[in-house]
Amino acid sequence: MKRHVIVICFLAVCFWFPPGVNGAELRTWTPKSGKFTVKAELLSFDQEVVSLRRTNGKTIKVPLAKLSKEDQEYVTNQGAPNGVPDTSAIKKLMTPDQLALGGPVVNSVDMVLVPIPAGEFMMGSPASEPDRGDDETQHEVKITKPFYLGAHEVTQAQYQQVMGNNPSRSKGATKPVELVNWYAAVEFCQKLSAQEGVEYRLPTEAEWEYARRAGTTTAFSFGADESQLGKYAWYRANSGDTTHPVGEKLPNGWGLYDMHGNVFEWCQDWYGAYESLRVVSDPTGSASGEGRVLRGGAFNYPPRLVRAAVRSDVYLPGFRIRNVGFRLARTYNLSP
Fold first, then answer.
1. Are residues 117 and 218 in the same domain?
2. pTM as predicted
3. Cβ-contact 100, 194 below 8 angstroms
């Protein structure tokens, strides 16, 4: 009883404020007790915690379970007036192993991230795979810790919110940001980490391929039939030589979109020969090198170069190219 009273008092003190002075679209919220109502703007929903923005610009976080049933349904349906993304379709695609880690996360810049479970996979391609490269030697890799990965490539709108600029040539708020070098992608991760108090980073090359394959072993995340590529990817044959809004094609088996084509995606690793062809856990690539790893292929590349195992170091980390963007990873907190 005392704990209940303390929670209600906390909500009453922290959630009460005068309505609408900053001109934001506000919504009336009610705690499960029903003893009072407050107004606030829905900012984000991260697993079981709802972030609400007060009219003075400050953010308040409250457990979803403390809100009324109506408010809970509103949040989980992502019906926010400020355009919080709908994650229901992605959640339906997630496997039981993913769901055991929690639902999709929507962060402060409306980026959807899905949990990726720990596991093992064969990295690279078998000798029998057509068009394979010499640097794709197949070997077993263990990913020992779960992590989050962006369901989509970072968009221009998201990049603008964090960095204050949009370097892209092919403009569009929901198109992937491009003309971003490796250093700018890392800076984006650092700024967003400081803004939210959680660790964002570029995925390792192993994490990237593991997530893209989503349990498959074929040349593409959907199988080996190249004729089906147009359903999943923007590539040379269907892109019109330009990028396209993220999420327009079909996702892979773990709810990740545009893992083939659209734009190349920077990884953490220096490019080099795989560090070991024995079973290896959580590899991070070469200790040094000239180029950083790019994965995924791009809108102006043929099918053979958007395969799951394809590796690229075509561009140095300081290069800014119209077919290169990135996707974020986020540390999964294993603490209770």
1. yes
2. 0.76
3. no
